[in-house]
Amino acid sequence: MVLDLFAGPGGWSHPLHLLGIRDVGLEWDEWACRTRAAAGLLTIRTDVAMYPCQMFAGRTRGFIASPPCQAWSMAGKRLGLVDRPLVHQAVADLASGRDTRERLLAACRDERSLLAAEPMRYLHALNGVGEPEWVAMEEVPDVLPLWRQYAAILRGWGFSAWTGILNAADYGVPQTRKRAILLASRVRTAEPPPPTHARLAEPESLFGPGRAQWVSMAEALGWGATDRPVPTICAGGGPGGGPEPFPSGARKTLSDARDRGTWAPMVGDLVLASRREGPGWGTRHGIRDDRSAEAPAPTFTAEAHRWSWSLRSNNQTNATVRGLDEPAGTLFFGHRANECTWVAEPSPDAPPGNGIEPPPPIRITAAEAGILQSFPAGYPWQGNKGQRFSQIGNAVPPRLAAHLLAPHIGVPFNPDDFTLAA
C-alpha cells in the first residue's frame, strides 16, 4: 500500500488514483474525511499522533506526509519557528527509537509544531522491515531545514534523498505556491521532476520543445485564455439599469456575476456578449447560462472595458494581487484576514473616468479556489464555505503531487488527466 499521513481532502490521493494506485489516508478533520469519502478515497479517521504504526510494517511500498502547516505558515503566528529546536530533537529521538514527544510537547509554544516530527515515528517502524521503497513529503518553505534533517537520517538508512523548494506554477498549477519538498528512494536516484512550465514560454530548441508559459487563472477557470473576462456594470448598476448587482459588503461571487448576465468576455475594447452566437456559445467562452437559446440576451454597455479584474490573496497590506492573465499567488484560507477576493481596477486602456465607482470586491468561491489549486472542477467538497476553504488552502496541489509521484510508481504522467475547468 501507499500510506498517506495528514491526507487532507485528497491532494496526494487524487493523482495516485489517476495513476492507478490507491493509498490509505490518515486524517483527523471530519470534513476532509467526508470529502475523501465522497471522492471514493480510502480513509482512516484518526489522530496521526496517536495511531499505532506497527500495523503498516511489511505492507507499505510508498510513504507520503504533509503535516499541518498552521504552526509554520506566514498566514499564522509562525510559532513553529520558535519550536523548531524541539521538533528537531523529537525527530532525532524518534529516529533512534526513543519517544520523547510528551516531554517536548509540553515545552512547545504551538502544540501543532510537533506534528512535523510524526512522520519519523512511522518511518522508523517501517525501516525495521526494509520499508518503504519511496518517500514524498511536503510543507511550507520554512520547514526545509527539518526536511534536510529527515534526508540525512534517510540516507543513513540506505535511501537516496533530495530536498528543496519547488514552485507549483512550474508544473502547470495556476498558482505560484512554493513548498518545501522531500523525495527519497531506495531503488532510484531521488531528484525533482523537470519543470514543464515557466514564467515566459520558451521556444523550441535542438533539445526539444521549450517549457510552456505558466497557466493563468483565466485559462484554468475556463474564462478564456485569450479573451479577457470583465464584469459589465450598466448605468443603473445592474443589467439594463436597476439596482446595483453587488452592493458594498454583499457576499456575492464573481461566478454569480456571470450567471446574472453582468459578466462578458472581451477582446480589446469589443464586448462579445451583445448577442447570441448560437447554442453552446456561453460554454465555449466560459459563461454558464442555463436559459434557452431563444431567451433575450443580457444587455451590456460600453462601460465593460473600464475595469480589469485581479485576485487579491488576502486582506493584509502585503497581499499578493495578480491579474487574470497570471497564476494566482499562494491561496491562504482559514482566517477572515486570509479571505481571497476578486478586485476591480481601471483597465490600462480605459477611457478617462467620469466618477463611476469600480465594482466592490467579490469573494472567490470554493469551486474557483479548488480549480486554482488544480483539483477538478467537480471535486466533491464537503462542509460549509469555511470548511471547504480550509481544506483547499491546506491541500497539496494534485498536479504538483502527480509530477512528484509518477517517477516513483513507474507510471508516466499524463497532463490530460488534469484537465482545466469544464
Automatic annotation (TrEMBL):
Pfam families per UniProt: DNA_methylase
PROSITE patterns documented for this protein: SAM_MT_C5
Annotated catalytic residues: C69
Gene3D superfamilies: DNA Methylase, subunit A, domain 2 (3.90.120.10), Vaccinia Virus protein VP39 (3.40.50.150)
InterPro entries in the cross-refs: C5-Methyltransferase, C5_MeTfrase, SAM-dependent_MTases_sf
Top-rank taxon: Bacteria
GO molecular-function terms, A-Z: DNA (cytosine-5-)-methyltransferase activity
UniProt record, GO biological process: methylation
Keyword terms of this UniProt record: Methyltransferase, Restriction system, S-adenosyl-L-methionine, Transferase
SUPFAM superfamilies to which the protein is assigned, alphabetical: S-adenosyl-L-methionine-dependent methyltransferases (SSF53335)
EC number, UniProt record: 2.1.1.37
Family according to the record: Belongs to the class I-like SAM-binding methyltransferase superfamily. C5-methyltransferase family.
PANTHER family: CYTOSINE-SPECIFIC METHYLTRANSFERASE, DNA (CYTOSINE-5)-METHYLTRANSFERASE 1
Name of the protein: DNA (cytosine-5-)-methyltransferase
Organism lineage: Bacteria, Bacillati, Actinomycetota, Actinomycetes, Kitasatosporales
